[in-house]
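Please check this chain.
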Amino acid sequence: MKLKTMKILSLNCGSSSVKYSLFDWENKLPMASGIIERVGIEGSFISHEAPGKDKIKNEHPCSNHDEAIKLVLETLIDKNHGVIDSLSSISAVGHRVVHGGEEFVKSVIIDAKVLEAFKRLSSLAPLHNPPNIAGIEAAKKLMPKVPHMAIMDTAWHQTMPAPSYIYPLPYEWYEKHAIRRYGFHGTSFLYVAKRASVLLKKDIFKSNLIICHIGNGASVNAVKNGVSYDTSMGFTPLEGIVMGTRSGDHGVAIDLHMMQKKNISPADMTNILNKKSGILGITGKYSDRRDVELAAEKGDERCKLAIEIESYRLKKYIGGYAAALGGVDAVIFTAGVGEKGPITRGKALDGLEFFGMEYDKDKNNIAKTRNAECEISSENSKTKVYVIPTDEERVFVEDVAGLIDGKYDIHTKFNYSFQKPEYRNILRDKAFEKECEKKPKLLKVAVNPTTSFKHFQKN
């Protein structure tokens, strides 16, 4: 296959969403991107956009990820909104895979043996590996003749030192059973870390960062000299800060106590901790932060409590990692809540001025966009505070291309296009321009907007 003619599809199947993008590698241009949200939840919908076409948002029931993948492919070939005539135009597919244990330390071409290994490791990431695998199998059925690649979420964290990833448990558990901290959201952290260094105008391998990826799943990453140093998620994506349906950190004795008291099996406890805890466990109703904030505004006390607990736990991680790094160049928020949740961001940063982290409340309230990199730090802040929309799909595309042409390697030896100051995302630029027509204040917080926005700044 000639690399320059490739059209690469990226599929990122999360616990309740499917993000996708189609990329024209020959012209280095995005063809389309979108997301299906609330998969498996009432009110699921697809948002789809392509250059030169109106953005669409349609409600569509998706009870599982098989239905969501099918909807993605149908949308890409739709006569009105699609960008290709048939699925045969797609040359390769990159899939997000959350957990590869110690068997996979970087992205890999998927064959039967690799897929079987992912299934064997599914218990390590029960909310994510199953939908990851469902996406792979659904896509392979519909596109059996094209190569499929797995983009490993754990690869970014392979640089963590032993004190960060070894647990204070019997050491033979690590030696014989690979019990260790793995860390997740790796593709997101990779992209955001590289972009942060561009905004800082600093060599990535001389940058210390704290990145807060806050979505339905959430984790915090301490980046020291441009590589992962520590991260909040651990052996599985259950550990760390409070999440949509996952508990995050808590005393393990609680689990043992409740298992004995209520005769709960290990499988049932795993289900409770992963699917019935976190924000959902506190509120008893909601896992989506948008629902939580609306209910809190109406006086729901448990929703108010959920917001306070989540932001407090986040604050503790930011402070702890600041101490571990011994100096922080920037704190960055990303993913759904991180990009569009000023309430959570603000509460997490309140009181951290003594660490040199000070945010501007007006800028924080304005910075609600997935289309522009924003700075919300105050003029007096010693540490920059950014909101950087993640782009895991772009990492997928470049890893896929690298695998096909034989140049792919670990991120410290592989150059991504988004590491360059001149890098632009055309789809996001166009979407941001439209946003600014309705919300011109966004330009006050946007970092390095394209020259096409100058006419907004003059008016």
